[in-house]
Each structure stands twice: as structure tokens, then as C-alpha cells.
Specification:
It catalyses: hydroxymethylbilane = uroporphyrinogen III + H2O. By secondary structure, this protein is of the alpha/beta class. It is built from eleven helices and 15 strands. The two termini are 24 Å apart.
Length: 306
């Protein structure tokens, strides 16, 4: 285990300015000071040590995970694998909210929540009742619901942070028709709308955003990422982007640590063997799964060879 008093630092493995960095390493500085010919001090930096974990969420959304891992002296390489872009129905959302009334708005991810709030405000902030999947998604609505609780109410979250749980547990009133608006990723499965339709809900789905793989990964960043024993992924899209990125790498068999069961199941279906994920999706369980994957890797590495 590394020295707990070691200080973390960030150094960008960057594309040429002004492009954003393709990866950021979080760990301990490796370097020393030496004296030059005229007595001047010169810094002599060595390459950083290999990371323990690759954090792959979209840019700007890895900080909490990296900070939580740093508390356990786990060094992370930030390598966003996907980015969100507008979906085919992004511009339709405000008009739909203005012109129709729904018993429920179904929001299943923080990104879906952010896109919905933008369209909701453009529609004039009509009164809505929201059902969310996961505490992280609910937090996106905290500020708005506190400021304008009469217009936007977060009224339901399923017992387990999974789409199929929401589809089976969402309350319906006594009305003969219960209308649901489901703003979703274009790549999301049809599990929720099919489950709700089977229970008699009338579901309108809008594909308000989608994900695309990040293409600007530098060779040095990729080399560091491949060397890491654990890759942390938060969606099947990120998982597929990683597999595409390493498609030309022979015999990559390190561990995948997933944020929840949905991504974990996708990893297994794609043929990955060393897959870790918590029973309850969320940051805390994800961190525990990553720590377990790192622990197993270190045990195997330190075990005597026969």
C-alpha cells in the first residue's frame, strides 16, 4: 500500500492547446531536484507510475470517483470514453411539455435529467411530477425542486436503482389512462417502456440525447490505460467504447469495475471474465467494487509463482 501521506497531483496528458486533454493522471509526482552548472536548480521528472484505475465517465464527471479512490491511495487515470450529444428529439421536448399533460416524467440518469431540465425551462417550467432512477439522478433536481417545488416534484424512486424496478413499481392512479413521458438516450433499451406498457401505462418516448465515443485518445494515454489493472465504466456505451479502443490489443484480460448490474451484465455478455459490480448501483458501491478488483489484482501479483 502506498504511503498514506503522499500528496496527489494532476498532470495533463494533453492534446496540443487549445484542445482539451484526452487523459489526466492522478497520482504522486515522480521527480527530483538537481543542481545545474551555475548552481541553478533544475527539475528532473521521471515518468509517472502506472495508474491503478482508469476513470472513463464523460469529461467533468469523474471527480467524485477519483476523490473517493484517492482516500484509499488508489491512483486514477481520467480517460473519458464517451460524450453526450443532442438526440433526434431534443428540439421536440419543449413543445411536447407545453402541449400535453403527463402523469409521470421518467428520468433514468443524470444526463437525462440535465437535458430534461433544459427543455422544461424552455417550455416555461410547466408543472410536472418526476420519477427518477438512482440518487445521483435525483440530486440533479435538488436545486430546482427546492426553488420551485410547486412546478417540479420528484415524487418516486424505485426500491432498486434499475429501470426494470421502476417499470414494475411506478404507481398509477385510478384513471383509465396513465400517461408517461420518457426522455431517454437514443441507445437506451426498451425495457422501461415495454414494462410500463404491459401494466397499462401510455408511454411517449423521446430520444433527447445520445452518446458517441471519444476519438482523440493519444497513444501515451492509451498505453497507460491498458497498463492499469482496473477500468471503471458507468454505462454499456462506455464499455463498448473501451472494447473498441483496445480492439487491436492482444490478450487484454484486466478487470472491469461497473457502476451497477446493468453495465455488469453487459460486460459479461460481451465476453469479459473479470467483472465487478455492486448489488446496488451508486458511487459508494462502485468504489467498493473497484477496491475489490484492485485487491484481487495485487494478491495475484504478489502470490508466489509455481
Amino acid at each position: 500500500m502506498r504511503d498514506a501521506a503522499a500528496m496527489a497531483f494532476s498532470s495533463s496528458l494533453a492534446l496540443p492547446s487549445p484542445s482539451p486533454p484526452s487523459g489526466t493522471f492522478r497520482g504522486r509526482p515522480a521527480g527530483r531536484i538537481r543542481t545545474g552548472a551555475a548552481g541553478r536548480f533544475q527539475a528532473c521528472f521521471l515518468p509517472p507510475p502506472p495508474p491503478d484505475v482508469v476513470a472513463t465517465r464523460e469529461r467533468g464527471k469523474n471527480a467524485k470517483l477519483i476523490a473517493a479512490l484517492e482516500k484509499h491511495n488508489i491512483q486514477s487515470l481520467e480517460l473519458p470514453l464517451i460524450e453526450h450529444v443532442d438526440g433526434p428529439d431534443t428540439d421536440r421536448l419543449p413543445d411536447v411539455l407545453r402541449n400535453d399533460k403527463f402523469d409521470w416524467i421518467i428520468i433514468t440518469s443524470p444526463e437525462a435529467a440535465a437535458v430534461f431540465l433544459k427543455g422544461w425551462k424552455a417550455a416555461g417550467s410547466p408543472k410536472v411530477r418526476v420519477a427518477v432512477v438512482g440518487a445521483g439522478t435525483a440530486r440533479v433536481f435538488d436545486e430546482v425542486s427546492q426553488l420551485d417545488h410547486q412546478s417540479l416534484e420528484v415524487a418516486f424512486s424505485p426500491s432498486k436503482a434499475m429501470g426494470k424496478s421502476l417499470a414494475s413499481e411506478l404507481p398509477r392512479g385510478s384513471e383509465s389512462t396513465c400517461k408517461v413521458l420518457y426522455p431517454a438516450s437514443a441507445k437506451a433499451s426498451h425495457e422501461i417502456q415495454e414494462g410500463l406498457s404491459d401494466r397499462g401505462f401510455y408511454v411517449t418516448r423521446l430520444n433527447t440525447y445520445t452518446t458517441v465515443p471519444v476519438e482523440d485518445v493519444k497513444p501515451l494515454t492509451l498505453k497507460l490505460a491498458i497498463s492499469a489493472p482496473v477500468v471503471a465504466v458507468a454505462s454499456p456505451s462506455a464499455l463498448k467504447a473501451w472494447l473498441k479502443l483496445i480492439s487491436k490489443v492482444n490478450n487484454w484480460d484486466n478487470s472491469i469495475a461497473c457502476i451497477g448490474e446493468t453495465t455488469g451484465s453487459a460486460a459479461k455478455k460481451l465476453g469479459l471474465k473479470s467483472v465487478y459490480y455492486p448489488t446496488t448501483p451508486g458511487l459508494e458501491g462502485w468504489v467498493e467494487s473497484i477496491l475489490e478488483a484492485v485487491r484481487v489484482h495485487r494478491q495475484l501479483k504478489e502470490a508466489p509463482k509455481r
